[in-house]
Amino acid sequence: MKDIDTKCVQSGYAPANGEARLLPIYQSTTYKYDTPEEMGDLFDLKKDGYFYTRLANPTVAGLENRIAALDGGVGAVGCASGMAASTLAVLNVCHAGDNIVSSATIYGGTYNLFSTTLPKVGIETRFVEPFDKAEDIEKVIDENTKVLFCETIANPAMYVADFEKWAKIAKKHGILLFVDNTLATPVICRPIEHGANVVIYSTTKYMDGHGAALGGMVVDGGNFDFAASDRYKDFVTPDESYHGMVYARDCGKAAFSVKLRVQYMRDIGAQMAPMNAFLTFLGVDTLHLRMPRHSENALKVAQLLEQSPYVEWVKYGGLESDVNYPLVQKYFDKGMASGMVTFGIKGGREAASKFQKALRLFKIVTHIADARSCVLHPASTTHRQLSDSDLASCGISDNLIRLSVGIESAADIVEDVKNALEASAK
Ligand SMILES: Cc1ncc(COP(=O)(O)O)c(C=O)c1O
């Protein structure tokens, strides 16, 4: 199974003779064994199997295996949400006193986690700008830096990560590179191929694609040498809370994901629900069909916006005039640039409000990456907790409108946006 289109449909679950063709929903917290020794072997990780759904569940495992296969990872851990995935991935390597170096233009919830919540437990974030030069990013790295973090396509600022730059810095300093690939999905971009070590998803978005199931995923690239320096002591010293396991020695390439599961998922319990894993698994069946359609439709909307007298600026990496266009050509498959388009409407907050009210197909929701087109004005909704200066550092202005272009007919979508733009100026 080489092609991503086939992997979307076939990977993650292979029924044995007479078993259900579709991945079943294992709606069970527990699993039965005939002898205590058999269960003991599972606790010791001597054998693969299930004993409690907080650690692992066969339906969630189906989705984990599928997404790991799509990304070229060695394993993955399903989490309750995208936020749970980012939190657990960071906690898996950071202690109080450690720091993360992150792009400042990231999803507002992750920005808040990094800027406000993690510092309360002693984990600091040093924010850098997406177009900062490598030398400038390197200046904020020290011996306690454990993670470099960026988004493939920043939500909602739309900057595309320059993987070559990030991976070079990560390699030079022996630091893990985490990439949130939510808006691109592995159909458009596979960050591990460009040097990422850990890939994070809100599966709530395109992976599910129907606004049905909350979820997150941490994919382990299996391509990091934890023993190469003293930076990641937890991976090379015994974990007394797990039978003295030394993750880098005992878990092979999957050290990161095994540690995350048996330590942090065990202790924090932000596990993906089996029903949500099932719905997301169904969603991924059509991911390779939806992403090209989202991208084609979004390009048409971006072209309309670029020509419109009611629009100040447009950001869409698929537009030749966009600053991110060269990165889209370099890193994204077939020039696809996803379904997210942001633009600045002339007339500020008032015009933004009129525009949203005039839309018919696009619905106002705090959701993106759905089969159905949707719209949001971040400054008055998702990002309203951020101060003006935090908003600016996330790349958000008060006239920014975020369109998540769906897979309806391009003609209907374009007409809806055109009419609403006209209404915004009345
Ligand atoms: C890029 C990105 N990462 C993470 C998240 C958080 O995901 P969730 O809402 O599933 O917790 C979001 C949510 O919008 C997102 O857009």
Can you describe this structure in just a few lines?
The chain is of the alpha/beta class and 426 residues long. 38% of the residues lie in helices and 14% in strands.
Topology:
Blueprint: H1 4-10, H2 36-43, H3 58-71, E1 75-79, H4 82-91, E2 99-103, H5 108-117, E3 124-128, H6 134-139, E4 145-151, H7 163-173, E5 176-180, H8 185-188, E6 198-202, E7 216-220, H9 233-236, H10 247-250, H11 255-268, H12 274-284, H13 287-307, E8 311-315, H14 325-331, E9 340-345, H15 348-358, E10 363-364, E11 374-376, H16 388-393, E12 400-404, H17 410-424
Parallel strand pairs: 2-3, 2-4, 4-5, 5-6, 10-11
Antiparallel strand pairs: 1-7, 6-7, 8-9, 9-12, 11-12
Helix pairs in contact: 1-3, 3-12, 13-17, 15-17
